[in-house]
């Protein structure tokens, strides 16, 4: 056993080709990311409202969040001093550049950025290193969902910055949280957008993944470097991992499976929501971010739209948020869940969340994913 190859991203070498996907708000912080890094995978802390526990969060969310980036990184490093730890920073975040810069200065090994294309990410990481007077070591990875989006970002970085990504994350239609597809695209891929449908056109999407691998290789060849590609979305078992590797990817990004671990930063109620969920409880919903997102249909989601919504307080989370038309405040809904009030909150999850039957340790999950148990 132990036959899977390590994941190599430049000078970063992860023993297991498994990245734990970033999960906001408050789901993947230092405890989960540190534990994953300690077992030889790559741990990712989500910066989405990362400072929600800070006393000044409501008054000064940006400051609270930036402070928490440093704190969470420090705690994760204490758990896994030799491990690989990075941040997931959503492009749609208000003050995105400040988050990127803080993550670099906090010593992130890697920044993974999706929910939009991270057009200016190379510039922000370089500026941060210059400002801090440090040699830039943070690797950068865009999240893409199609050959088209991979091409756009590779072309842009090539033309504007004369560089290529260090890693590419391909997020497919079975992922949790916000999805990089329109409802129309999801339907074309055979995903039933009202209920989860695991019979989606996997063969079609596998071809898309192969197309992305070919495209990324062209840019790798141009810059004389190996750019690893990892896939995400619905990867839950060792068989799922083997299937992805058979497509030619270098590793996987897994989120949902890590939620029901002892070490996950989510409150017990959030983990229980996964354990209790049935397949038909997992739905695609339209989030105020303007993208479809996958979540558990709980009392909160059932009630959305039933009473007119009035925003009481803005937490400054998104670059673009139409306060007049949103059906609810996404920060409030996610913080409710992160604080254990899941019935009043949005519970994001991947399409396979219903498979959880109880809590596991991160080590058990990792061993199962890589086939070492
Ligand atoms: C609870 C939850 C929160 C998430 N939050 C984020 C996030 O803040 N930013 C992001 O880019 N992706 C987010 N994701 C997506 C994951 O990082 C990951 O790519 C995806 O869920 C992988 O599919 P899986 O959950 O089926 O393993 C989230 C996923 C879940 C389940």
UniProtKB/TrEMBL annotation:
Keywords: Dioxygenase, Flavoprotein, FMN, Oxidoreductase. It comes from the Bacteria. GO terms for molecular function: dioxygenase activity; nitronate monooxygenase activity. InterPro entries: Aldolase_TIM, NMO. Gene3D superfamilies: Aldolase class I. The keyword Isomerase does not apply. Pfam families: NMO. Nitronate monooxygenase that uses molecular oxygen to catalyze the oxidative denitrification of alkyl nitronates. Acts on propionate 3-nitronate (P3N), the presumed physiological substrate. Probably functions in the detoxification of P3N, a metabolic poison produced by plants and fungi as a defense mechanism. This is Probable nitronate monooxygenase.
């Amino acid at each position: 056993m132990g036959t899977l190859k390590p994941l190599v991203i430049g000078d970063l070498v992860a023993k297991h080709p498994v990245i734990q996907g970033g999960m906001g708000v408050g789901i993947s912080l230092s405890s989960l990311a540190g534990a994953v890094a300690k077992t030889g995978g790559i741990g990712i802390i989500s910066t989405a409202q990362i400072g929600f526990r800070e006393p000044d969060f409501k008054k000064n969310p940006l400051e609270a969040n930036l402070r928490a980036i440093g704190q969470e990184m420090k705690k994760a490093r204490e758990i896994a001093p030799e491990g690989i730890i990075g941040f997931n920073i959503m492009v749609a975040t208000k003050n995105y550049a400040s988050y990127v810069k803080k993550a670099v200065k906090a010593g992130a090994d890697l920044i993974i950025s999706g929910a939009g294309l991270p057009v200016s990410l190379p510039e922000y990481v370089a500026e941060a290193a210059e400002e801090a007077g440090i040699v830039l070591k943070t690797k950068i990875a865009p999240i893409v969902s199609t050959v088209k989006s991979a091409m756009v970002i590779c072309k842009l970085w090539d033309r504007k910055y004369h560089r290529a990504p260090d890693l590419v994350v391909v997020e497919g239609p079975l992922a949790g949280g916000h999805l990089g597809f329109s409802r129309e695209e999801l339907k074309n891929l055979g995903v039933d957008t009202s209920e989860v449908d695991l019979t989606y056109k996997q063969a079609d999407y596998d071809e898309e993944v192969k197309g992305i691998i070919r495209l990324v290789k062209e840019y790798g060849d141009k810059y004389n470097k190996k750019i690893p590609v990892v896939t995400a979305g619905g990867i839950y078992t060792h068989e799922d991992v083997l299937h992805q590797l058979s497509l030619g990817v270098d590793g996987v990004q897994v989120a949902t499976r890590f939620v029901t671990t002892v070490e996950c930063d989510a409150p017990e109620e959030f983990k229980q929501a996964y354990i209790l969920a049935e397949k038909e409880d997992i739905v695609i919903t339209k989030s105020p971010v303007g993208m479809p997102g996958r979540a558990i249909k709980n009392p909160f989601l059932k009630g959305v739209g039933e009473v007119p919504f009035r925003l009481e307080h803005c937490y400054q989370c998104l670059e673009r948020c139409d306060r007049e038309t949103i059906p609810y405040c996404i920060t409030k809904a996610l913080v409710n869940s992160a604080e254990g009030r899941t019935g009043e909150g949005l519970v994001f999850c991947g399409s396979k969340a219903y498979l959880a039957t109880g809590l596991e340790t991160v080590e058990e999950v990792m061993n199962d994913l890589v086939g070492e148990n």
